[in-house]
TrEMBL record:
Chain segments annotated as transmembrane: 40-59, 120-144, 150-168, 207-232, 252-272, 279-304, 316-337
Domain of life, per lineage: Bacteria
Keyword Membrane: yes
Name of the featured protein: Nucleoside transporter/FeoB GTPase Gate domain-containing protein
Keywords: Membrane, Transmembrane, Transmembrane helix
Organism name: Virgibacillus phasianinus
Length: 343
């Protein structure tokens, strides 16, 4: 029945407005082409995505992830929280949010983490970039605007791994308990360095061509449809006003939320030097999170529902709490930290 209605509707449109479909496709193509072709395929951004994955996997091979987890686990013991809570967030620092859920979910279950602690793990994981490429391209943007990155990274990437579990365990998710992990898994791959280089290059290429570009194309397809229908300008204006109010550059903030943070920080570097540095700082913090929104309400719940004790709805709620905390972090750091960061 639906198919018949679509056929009748299409024929009606072709009869009364024969050029409407061509104008619709032209609008869609004009939305997708500048991003996919000009940004990812023919500029340095695509190469930067692949290179950043290689760097991230090499750091992981040298034990960066293991070192980070072993630094933060004792802190969770002081807070009387199951130490396994920090594992997905620390693993995700190098930017693999899907693998973080697949690996950390079973560890949390084995460590007998309560549901509250598993929700804390999800909300805290959202504070880390879902792609290491986002982090690297963000550093480039910060350097262009003369913003000191050391203190910003310390307070926006590493500090939330401590602050968020502490705050949530004393407010929303209070069913926590102090336990001792019998055995802390090892996260450093045992692959050879040569294999690490080539497999990470392959992973980076897959990330670019099989994840980022398809996702960007789909989202901009819908934006093109909304723009053709005359709806998008109203949505964009409303979102821009809200983001500016919380110290986030509106254009790149919208891209972070809806499309891809990797694209957002790439566009951030191309903004005029007259942009208020507070907006740059806020945009950097927001982009280095679990966004875009379809990852938060789609990929993360699907993975965690399979690997942990949580259902998809519980994961979505925890993820949304995490992104609200991230927006608040962007606002606070944008307004109050920026004066100390501008070189």
């Amino acid at each position: 029945m639906i198919g018949i209605l679509i056929v009748i509707g299409s024929l009606t449109v072709l009869f009364f407005a024969p050029d409407s479909l061509s104008r619709l496709f032209d609008t869609i193509v004009k939305e997708i082409k500048p991003v996919v072709v000009d940004t990812f395929l023919t500029s340095e951004v695509g190469i930067a995505v692949i290179a950043s994955v290689i760097v991230g996997r090499v750091l992981e091979r040298f034990g960066f992830t293991d070192g980070l987890i072993r630094l933060f686990v004792p802190i969770m013991k002081w807070f009387k929280i199951n130490p396994a809570v920090i594992i997905p967030s620390a693993y995700n620092i190098l930017g693999d949010i899907n693998a973080a859920g697949k690996i950390a979910g079973p560890i949390l279950v084995k460590a007998k983490a309560t549901k509250a602690e598993q929700k804390i793990a999800v909300a805290t994981m959202i504070q880390s970039p879902q792609s290491f490429a986002t982090f690297v391209l963000g550093l480039i943007a910060l350097s262009i605007f003369g913003i000191d990155s050391f203190l910003l990274i310390l307070l926006s990437i590493f500090a939330p791994l401590i602050i968020v579990p502490f705050v949530l365990s004393n407010t929303i998710y209070r069913d926590t308990k102090k336990v001792t992990l019998e055995e802390l898994p090892r996260f450093t791959p045992k692959t050879t360095m040569l294999n690490t280089f080539f497999s990470s290059a392959k992973e980076g290429t897959e990330l670019l061509f099989l994840v980022i570009i398809p996702a960007v194309s789909v989202v901009f397809l819908f934006i093109g449809i909304l723009k053709f229908a005359g709806i998008w300008d109203t949505i964009e204006t409303s979102m821009a006003a809200l983001l500016t109010m919380v110290s986030i550059e509106p254009d790149t903030g919208i891209v972070s939320f809806l499309v891809a943070p990797t694209l957002a920080v790439a566009q951030l570097a191309d903004l005029a030097a007259t942009i208020d540095p507070r907006l740059i700082v806020g945009s950097f913090v927001l982009a280095n999170s679990g966004l875009p929104i379809y990852v938060i309400i789609g990929q993360i719940p699907a993975i965690w529902a399979e690997t942990s004790d949580l259902c998809e709805r519980e994961v979505i709620y925890a993820s949304l709490i995490g992104i609200l905390i991230r927006v608040a972090t962007a606002c606070i750091l944008g307004y109050f930290l920026t004066p100390y960061l501008v070189v």
